[in-house]
Amino acid sequence: NLNKMELRGKVVAVLPTVTYGKEGKKKGVLVIEYGDRYPKKAAITFFERLLPNIDGVKVGDELLVEVSIDSREWQGKWFTDVLANKVQTTQGLEKKEEVFQVPDQHGDLPF
Fold first, then answer.
1. pLDDT of the residue at 98
2. Mean pLDDT of 86-104
3. C-alpha distances in angstroms, 72 versus 7, 29, 76, 80?
4. Backbone torsion region of residue 80, taken as left when φ is above 0, otherwise alpha when ψ lies between -120 and 50, otherwise beta
5. How buried is 53 (Cβ within 10 angstroms: 0-12 exposed, 13-18 middle, 19+ buried)?
6. In whole angstroms, what is the distance from residue 64 CA to residue 6 CA?
7. Please, which residues have CB within 8 angstroms of residue 57's CB and are 6 or more apart in sequence?
8. In this predicted model, what pLDDT tens digit does every residue of 75-93 receive, in sequence order?
């Protein structure tokens, strides 16, 4: 899917949740740093439905965020938003499966 974009990086700022609009909707913003050789930062907006998914996220956490980019014009100027569609911590992605092994006890048996 060409419209699917992912950013994987470290949280460098957690901005306060804000309320906006007549309906009192909420949104939050996390700033993540991504890229290896030349790191960049992106402020990613999380709308109300995803706020529970970032509750407890703190500076230093590693995230994988599926994003979309949206631009709009206002009074002859253009503004671009990076919007979160999905988020998960990378700790769960990088965990290696642990294999439980029973120690060889044949030589240690008393009978």
1. 41
2. 57
3. 22, 18, 10, 7
4. beta
5. middle
6. 7
7. 11, 14, 30, 63
8. 999 999 999 999 998 765 4
Please, which residues have CB within 8 angstroms of residue 4's CB and are 6 or more apart in sequence?
66
Q: Where are the beta strands (DSSP E) in 1-111?
A: 5-20, 25-34, 40-47, 62-74, 77-89
Using CB atoms within 10 A of its CB, is residue 14 exposed (0-12), middle (13-18) or buried (19+)?
A: middle
Length of the chain: 111
- Using CA atoms, how far residue 36 sits from 10, 13, 20, 54, 97, in Å, is 11, 18, 35, 24, 26
pLDDT at 4: 77
